[in-house]
Structures are given as C-alpha cells and as structure tokens.
Amino acid sequence: MSQPTIAFLGTGSMSGAILAGLLRAGAGRVLATNRSREKAAALAQEGVEAIALEDEPGGNRRAAAEADLVVLGVKPYGIVDLAREVAGDLRPGSVVVSIAAGTPIAAIEAVLPEGVAVVRAMPNTPSHVGLGVTGVAGGSRASEADVALAVGLFEAVGEVLVVDEAQIDALSSISGSGPAYVFLLVEELTDAAERMGFTPEQAATMVQGTFRGAMELLAAEQLPPAELRRRVTSPKGTTERAVAVLQDARLGEVFDRATAAALARAQELAAN
C-alpha cells in the first residue's frame, strides 16, 4: 500500500513534527485530530482533514475508522486510554503506531482487537525538516508488512532503524533526546563567544555555521569523527589545548550519566 490513509490522533510537538515532515514529502490522505478549532483550521490550510475535538468529541473514533495507519500522538500517560477509546472503530488489518516514550507495546495490544497490529516508534524532532532518525519495533501481532508500512511513514521524514522493542528506550536516550544535547552545546558555545566580546548575531553565525559545517563535512568525508577531529587538531596548537580541557572534563562519563538518566526515566514511565 503505497499511499495509505493516515490518521494522527493528537498533533502535539512530536506528532506535529512528523505530520509536517510527511506533508512536505507529499503524503496521500491525512486526517488529524486536536483539541482546538484554531489548530484544526491551521492544519486544514495545509491540506489535512483536521478534526477539532471541541467541536466533535468523537473525532478520534471517526479518524481511526477511516485510516489504514493510526498514529497515537498524545502524551505517554494518555496512550493506552486513547487506544482503548478507538479500539472498536479500527479496521481489521490496520496498524497502530505509538510514538510515546515508556509505554510498552503489550500495554497497547492488550486493549486492541486481535486483528490490529501495533508498532512502536521513537522519532526525533529533526523529522520536521526531513532529517529525523526514528527507531521502529513491531509488536507480537505485527507482520513484516505492518512494520514496513510504519517504516515507510517515517522514511518520509528521515532515516529509520528497525530494532527490537527492548532497544527502543535506549535508542530514545540517544537519538530521541539527542537534539536537546546538541542544542545545549550550541547554547553553551554561543554564550562563550558572547563572553569573549562577540555580539549575539556574530556568536550565532559562528557557532551555528560551525556545527552545520562540521556535520556536513562528517557526512561528506565518511570518516570516523575521531579522525576528522585529529585533522583539525594540530600538534601543540590551539585546538589541541582546547580539546585537552574538554577531555579532562570526561565528557564520555557525562554522556553516560545523561543517557542513563533518560533511560531510567523511560523505564519509570513504563512501570507506571
């Protein structure tokens, strides 16, 4: 099915990024629900069949009934309740995709009919500009074709890794939360440039251009980042001195602790 009908039940930050990227890629029929009529009107201008739940309280059920692929786009605490709400309206053979952190597939499967497959996905926000990274895992009832359908959805907005569900939370701590790590580094280096006397505009140009250029160079050269770092770092030069300070800070240990904290939180969400 090259152009399935897709329903987004909830268009928050993450699901909204996926929806926007999908529209940029040229999707087929797309339905979307959200709480307000104002947001529904904005989505309608983008070619989405938008449903405002304040006007149509049963809008989630209607959208689910008309879709081949149903994306549960609400907060993790509401995922199972939303799945239960639309369970009786889903088409046999349809695929339900959850993008919620910490909600296991089994919890969603438990409230859905046997003929409905569940796929769990963990996208990241660069999907909004077509440069996302998404991990996808099929549930116990998901066939290869079901997983492929979900993969096709997320390939429209970036790269996709098919993994076991046991790896999804760990993946989330890297690629899911990863953009925030990058933005934090950009923020801190920009602040450092301003403290050196550059204007905010100059600092932003230097730092954002450097990050963008470095990643393009990494992609173009297809060499390990350690090798590219070595090429920038002249012996006894300025960069070598700066890198030594960063290495003394034991950044590897810092990232180990950060990703472990993210993983622990995902596990807490699953336990609750």
From TrEMBL:
- Main location (coarse class): cytoplasm
The protein's matches in InterPro entries, at most eight in alphabetical order, are given as:
6-PGluconate_DH-like_C_sf, NAD(P)-bd_dom_sf, P5C_Rdtase_cat_N, P5CR-like_CS, P5CR_dimer, Pyrroline-COOH_reductase
Q: Which domain of life is it from?
A: Bacteria
Q: In which pathway does it act?
A: Amino-acid biosynthesis; L-proline biosynthesis; L-proline from L-glutamate 5-semialdehyde: step 1/1
From which residue to which does the signal peptide run? none
What positions does the domain Pyrroline-5-carboxylate reductase dimerisation occupy?
A: 165-269
Q: What chemistry does it catalyse, as a reaction equation?
A: L-proline + NADP(+) = (S)-1-pyrroline-5-carboxylate + NADPH + 2 H(+); L-proline + NAD(+) = (S)-1-pyrroline-5-carboxylate + NADH + 2 H(+)
Q: Where in the cell is it found?
A: Cytoplasm
Record keywords = Amino-acid biosynthesis, Cytoplasm, NADP, Oxidoreductase, Proline biosynthesis
Q: Which family does it belong to?
A: Belongs to the pyrroline-5-carboxylate reductase family.
Q: What does this protein do?
A: Catalyzes the reduction of 1-pyrroline-5-carboxylate (PCA) to L-proline.
Protein name (database record): Pyrroline-5-carboxylate reductase
Query: What is the organism field in this record?
Result: Agrococcus terreus
Which lineage ranks, top first, belong to the organism behind this chain? Bacteria, Bacillati, Actinomycetota, Actinomycetes, Micrococcales
Q: Which gene encodes it?
A: proC
